[in-house]
Protein backbone atom coordinates (compact mmCIF):
# COMPACT_ATOMS: atom_id res chain seq x y z
CA UNK A 1 0.00 0.00 0.00
CA UNK A 2 2.90 2.34 0.56
CA UNK A 3 3.88 2.10 -3.10
CA UNK A 4 0.44 3.10 -4.38
CA UNK A 5 -1.04 5.77 -2.07
CA UNK A 6 -3.52 6.88 -4.73
CA UNK A 7 -5.03 3.39 -4.86
CA UNK A 8 -5.17 3.18 -1.07
CA UNK A 9 -6.90 6.55 -0.79
CA UNK A 10 -9.40 5.76 -3.56
CA UNK A 11 -10.29 2.40 -2.00
CA UNK A 12 -10.66 4.10 1.38
CA UNK A 13 -12.98 6.77 -0.05
CA UNK A 14 -15.06 4.14 -1.87
CA UNK A 15 -15.35 2.06 1.31
CA UNK A 16 -16.35 5.11 3.33
CA UNK A 17 -18.99 6.03 0.73
CA UNK A 18 -20.50 2.53 0.78
CA UNK A 19 -20.58 2.37 4.58
CA UNK A 20 -22.09 5.84 4.90
CA UNK A 21 -24.85 4.92 2.43
CA UNK A 22 -25.75 1.84 4.44
CA UNK A 23 -25.75 3.72 7.76
CA UNK A 24 -27.58 6.81 6.53
CA UNK A 25 -30.93 7.54 8.23
CA UNK A 26 -32.29 8.71 4.87
CA UNK A 27 -31.90 5.18 3.54
CA UNK A 28 -34.72 4.01 5.82
CA UNK A 29 -37.08 6.77 4.64
CA UNK A 30 -36.14 6.15 1.02
CA UNK A 31 -37.08 2.51 1.38
CA UNK A 32 -40.42 3.40 2.98
CA UNK A 33 -41.21 5.91 0.21
CA UNK A 34 -40.33 3.41 -2.50
CA UNK A 35 -42.51 0.75 -0.86
CA UNK A 36 -45.45 3.17 -0.51
CA UNK A 37 -45.15 4.42 -4.09
CA UNK A 38 -45.41 0.90 -5.43
CA UNK A 39 -49.02 1.19 -6.62
CA UNK A 40 -49.80 4.91 -6.45
CA UNK A 41 -48.90 5.60 -10.06
CA UNK A 42 -51.38 4.94 -12.90
CA UNK A 43 -51.29 1.36 -14.11
CA UNK A 44 -51.65 0.75 -17.84
CA UNK A 45 -53.21 -2.63 -17.17
CA UNK A 46 -56.80 -3.56 -16.40
CA UNK A 47 -57.60 -6.15 -13.77
CA UNK A 48 -59.57 -9.14 -15.01
CA UNK A 49 -60.39 -10.23 -11.46
CA UNK A 50 -57.55 -12.70 -11.12
CA UNK A 51 -54.65 -10.32 -10.53
CA UNK A 52 -54.70 -9.47 -6.84
CA UNK A 53 -51.84 -6.98 -6.87
CA UNK A 54 -53.13 -4.83 -9.76
CA UNK A 55 -55.74 -2.08 -9.21
CA UNK A 56 -59.07 -2.65 -10.93
CA UNK A 57 -58.86 0.75 -12.64
CA UNK A 58 -55.74 2.72 -13.67
CA UNK A 59 -56.70 5.67 -11.44
CA UNK A 60 -57.44 3.57 -8.34
CA UNK A 61 -54.88 4.11 -5.62
CA UNK A 62 -53.75 0.85 -4.13
CA UNK A 63 -50.95 0.55 -1.66
CA UNK A 64 -49.70 2.35 1.41
CA UNK A 65 -50.48 5.98 2.18
CA UNK A 66 -47.82 8.69 2.26
CA UNK A 67 -49.46 10.58 5.16
CA UNK A 68 -46.53 9.71 7.44
CA UNK A 69 -44.23 11.57 5.03
CA UNK A 70 -46.31 14.76 5.30
CA UNK A 71 -46.13 14.58 9.10
CA UNK A 72 -42.31 14.53 9.28
UniProtKB/TrEMBL annotation:
It is a single-pass membrane protein. GO terms for cellular component: mitochondrial inner membrane; respiratory chain complex I. Keywords: Acetylation, Electron transport, Membrane, Mitochondrion, Mitochondrion inner membrane, Respiratory chain, Transmembrane, Transmembrane helix, Transport. The chain crosses the membrane at residues 6-23. InterPro entries: NDUFA3. It holds the Pfam family NADHdh_A3. It is found in: Mitochondrion inner membrane. The keyword Transmembrane applies. The keyword Disulfide bond does not apply. It comes from the Eukaryota. Accessory subunit of the mitochondrial membrane respiratory chain NADH dehydrogenase (Complex I), that is believed not to be involved in catalysis. Complex I functions in the transfer of electrons from NADH to the respiratory chain. The immediate electron acceptor for the enzyme is believed to be ubiquinone. PANTHER family: NADH DEHYDROGENASE [UBIQUINONE] 1 ALPHA SUBCOMPLEX SUBUNIT 3. Complex I is composed of 45 different subunits. Belongs to the complex I NDUFA3 subunit family. This is NADH dehydrogenase [ubiquinone] 1 alpha subcomplex subunit 3. It comes from Pterocles burchelli.
